[in-house]
Design brief:
Elements (H helix, E strand, L loop, with lengths): L16 E6 L9 E9 L2 E8 L2 E8 L2 E8 L9 E4 L7 E5 L2 E11 L6 H10 L8 E7 L10 E8 L4 E9 L4 E11 L5
Antiparallel strand pairs: 1-5, 1-6, 2-3, 3-4, 4-5, 7-8, 8-12, 9-10, 10-11, 11-12
Length: about 190
């Protein structure tokens, strides 16, 4: 998916920061470009591609967790906030209602082969997903690069865990930032 109303913004993967928040989060502060939803009983997962990267929100009972990995500051009081270059992985957090684990890797050519071909293959696999999975992608406008910037967010949810896998392609820098998160709702969360 791409949008004509999304202007080209030259961003760097070094500007990404991880914010993890609990409690309500207003989505009005973000420019949402694509979204998907999974509901499994008391578990709700919403994945959003935003103009600066992605937001994944998980609600279980009365608890909420929001992962924002983006080139922007988030309104609210994050339980965890780190610029991407300062993130020591894995990040493991014990939060109200959830256990959370995050890893990040940076794939660059030629060490990782062609990471942009990997991103294209992942995007193709989004075409037929089961109902407990979300697969969304967004191709950002380009300034003339051969390969367009792209964000892909994949979510697989069961009642006992949510796995979030993302790929953020920065062709202007020759890198793809890949993240993997595991969010486990705690029993008895109401």
């Amino acid at each position: 998916m791409s949008s004509p109303d999304c202007a080209y913004v030259d961003q760097s993967h070094g500007e990404l920061r991880l914010s993890v928040l609990t409690g309500p989060l207003s989505m009005t502060q973000f420019h949402v470009l694509g979204k998907g939803l999974v509901e499994l009983g008391s578990l709700t997962v919403q994945a959003n591609i935003i103009g600066a990267s992605h937001v994944v929100s998980v609600k279980h009972g009365g608890a909420e967790l929001h992962e924002v990995f983006a080139c922007l500051n988030v309104d609210g009081q994050p339980a965890f906030l780190r610029p991407s270059p300062e993130i020591v992985v894995p990040v493991t957090l014990d939060l109200p209602g959830f256990s959370y684990r995050f890893t990040r890797s940076i794939l660059s050519a030629p060490e990782a082969g062609n990471p942009f071909q990997t991103v294209a293959s992942i995007e193709k696999s989004l075409e037929c997903l089961p109902p407990n999975q979300i697969g969304i992608s967004f191709t950002f406008p380009t300034s003339g690069n051969e390969v367009s910037p792209k964000t892909i967010v994949c979510v697989s949810a069961t009642r006992s865990q949510v796995i979030v896998s993302t790929h953020h392609a920065y062709p202007n820098e020759g890198v793809v930032v890949q993240t993997l998160s595991c969010i486990v709702p705690k029993e008895g969360t109401t």
